[in-house]
Amino acid sequence: MQDMLVALYRLPEAAPVVARLAADGILIRRVNPWERTLLVDFARDLFGANWADEVQVAFAHQPITCFVATDRTARRIVGMTAYECTRRGFLGPAGVHPDYRGRDIGRALLLRALEGLRDLGYAYGIIGGVGPAEFYARCAGAVPIADSTPGVYEDLLPRG
Length: 160
What we know:
Elements (H helix, E strand, L loop, with lengths): L3 E4 L7 H9 L2 E5 L5 H12 L1 H7 L10 E6 L4 E8 L6 E7 L8 H15 L4 E4 L5 H8 L2 E2 L16
Parallel strand pairs: 5-6
Antiparallel strand pairs: 1-6, 1-7, 2-3, 3-4, 4-5
């Protein structure tokens, strides 16, 4: 899977999408330190052990470099997007629970995390090993990086 590049100085605003979701009971916010186990379990259960390992790096930063979507009614995490975990300037891992997809939660999380990279001083962000390239292109203007497969994941060791 290829990497993609995003010009952070051209990002669409996250605030309107975040506000609309909040009105529907979905909160987009930075994860809290005491939610580490909940987030790691969410990542592992839905996306696998590698994502669970990777997202833990977000807690080594201050502020924590991960945003979550929570369902206020169900009182649970329903999506996440981390940054500065895989490598500096990288976005990911990122994912939304299948039951909550198609509601712009992924877009809100993506834009908030990209804003986080921009707030760190980056002009460009890298989305590593993307699956839904059309999603990143449509939501954030991401463009493919030539010859970026497998990128930083080249030496991924199998789980034993």
